[in-house]
Specification:
heterodimer; A: 10 strands; 45% strand; B: mainly beta
């Protein structure tokens, strides 16, 4: 099976931009959609990006997703950082046999 | 309104089994898979597997293969996850989750249960 590797943590000041990478170990990142979830302590995860770059209704357009085949990675970018964005973020994808994988998770700290 | 309501916290001894329920409402039960996700204290999310409520078939992550069984009861719109031969490593919050669809789109793992804490200790 494949792995999705994320940086352990990122931090930035309010109003700035952070980008979280998610690198797929085996298989092409472009072959199966990537989702991104936000999780605050004690709460269930919520979807911030689905199908690589789509935002569910209610998610601010400060959140954007992309994939890069050259690095076999997906990325989540949060611009105009706010204190409410402080949370753990997980990428997620799947393979052709309906097996799903979550990334290792990234803690976003707003300084 | 879609809701996934899970059963309450459980305490088990090593070697025992636990069965958690996830009752859904607000959508047609057989329309979407139910996934189960494990989160150990201070750790990340780990996909355990899924059950297709339409035919009851399960697909399991290799890590849990042989110890986990996921089922679905169409008469009560309830999914179940049973984990056997528990060890302290299974102490975790377990979530059920399902997709949101409509308007031509489907968003995987959009709706989540509140989580069920399972503690394994002698």
């Amino acid at each position: 099976n494949f792995l999705l590797t994320q940086p352990h943590s990122v931090s930035e000041s309010p109003g700035k931009t952070v980008t979280i990478s998610c690198t797929r170990s085996i298989g092409s990142v472009a072959s199966n959609h990537v989702q991104w979830y936000k999780q605050r302590p004690g709460s269930s995860p919520t979807t911030v990006i689905y199908e690589d770059n789509q935002r569910p209704s209610g998610v601010p357009d400060r959140f954007s997703g992309s994939i890069d085949s050259s690095s076999n990675s997906a990325s989540l970018t949060i611009s105009g950082l706010k204190t409410e964005d402080e949370a753990d973020y997980y990428c997620q994808s799947y393979d052709g046999s309906n097996h799903y994988v979550f990334g290792s998770g990234t803690k976003v700290t707003v300084l | 309104e879609v809701q996934l309501v899970q059963s309450g916290a459980e305490v088990r001894k090593p070697g025992a089994a636990v069965k958690i329920s996830c009752k859904v409402s607000g959508y047609i039960f057989i329309d979407h898979y139910i996934h189960w996700v494990q989160q150990a204290p201070g750790k990340g999310l780990k996909w355990m597997g899924l059950v297709d409520p339409e035919d009851g078939k399960g697909i399991y992550a290799e890590t849990f293969q042989g110890r986990v069984t996921m089922t679905a009861d169409r008469s009560t719109d309830t999914a179940y996850m049973e984990l056997t031969r528990l060890t302290s490593d299974d102490t975790a919050v377990y979530y059920c989750t399902t997709a949101r669809s409509g308007g031509g789109l489907e968003i995987l793992m959009y709706y989540w249960g509140q989580g069920t804490l399972v503690s394994v200790s002698s």
